[in-house]
Amino acid sequence: MTTVVVEKDTKVNQETKRILKRFARKRDNLIPILQKVQGRLGYLPREAMLEIANYLDVPEMDVYSVVTFYNQFRLNPPGRHSIRVCLGTACHMKGGYITLDAWKRRLGIGPGETTADQEFDLGTVACVGCCTMAPVTVVDGKPEAKVEPTRVDGLLLSFGHESQKELKKNHANS
Ligand code: FES
User: Fold this and answer.
1) Which fold has domain 2-69?
2) DSSP code at position 148
3) Among residues 89, 134, 143, 173, which one has the fewest Cβ atoms lying within 10 Å of its Cβ?
4) Dihedrals φ, ψ of 84, to 5°?
5) pLDDT grade, residue 138 (50/70/90)?
6) In the structure, which protein residues have their CB atom closer than 6 angstroms to any atom of ligand 1?
7) CA neighbours within 13 Å on the CB side: how many for 139?
8) pTM of the full predicted structure?
9) What number does the ligand 1 atom closest to the CA of 130 have?
10) How many angstroms separate the first and last alpha carbons of the chain?
């Protein structure tokens, strides 16, 4: 006797299918579909990418390649607070990458990732139009000026983040 396993649709599948209904089954619709699904779910879980690949009849790998190519797409759920380090020319010249390194160290994650406690997600942006404030980090949508490593510590402390303990420990050891 053959056993047929019927998988129940998860919330992700249901939401994705609802969005897919609005689009023709054309490969050209891949990016707009991904944008809509991410807009709804906050990120692009694997089940959603599979659903999209099936719908458009393209290999799952193609969907994954597009998602990882464009940094507008996220593979991880967003955190409660979003941290976006500007790496536009002015911010780059003023040490944007040093700022990014400071965020990476303090949060223990890289761009495109979310902390284990789901508090913060980290990413990068191109110029956000306030170059005189370089290096800029956009925190929860608000551009913060002159965010150098010491300011990273200050911003984190203002959130009362866990890394407060981490910071104290690091400072005690230095
Ligand atoms: S380059 Fe960062 S705000 Fe313009």
Assistant:
1) Arc Repressor Mutant, subunit A (1.10.10)
2) -
3) 173
4) -125, 115
5) very high
6) 86, 88-91, 127-128, 130-131, 134, 136
7) 18
8) 0.73
9) 3
10) 67
Query: Which amino acid is present at 159?
Result: F
pLDDT in tens, 18-48: 999 999 999 999 999 999 999 999 999 999 9
For 60, the token pair is: 């799952």
Q: Can you give the residue ranges of every domain in the chain? A: 2-69, 81-173
| CA distances from residue 101 to 5, 87, 148 in whole angstroms, order as listed | 47, 12, 10
SS3 84: strand
| Cβ–Cβ < 8 Å for 71, 112 | yes
pLDDT digits (tens, 9 = 90+) for 100-130: 999 999 999 999 899 999 999 999 999 999 9
Pocket test of ligand 1: the residue of 94, 99, 127 to mutate, having most ligand atoms within 8 Å of its CB, is 127
53, two tokens: 């690949």
Give the CATH fold of the 81-173 domain.
Answer: Glutaredoxin (3.40.30)
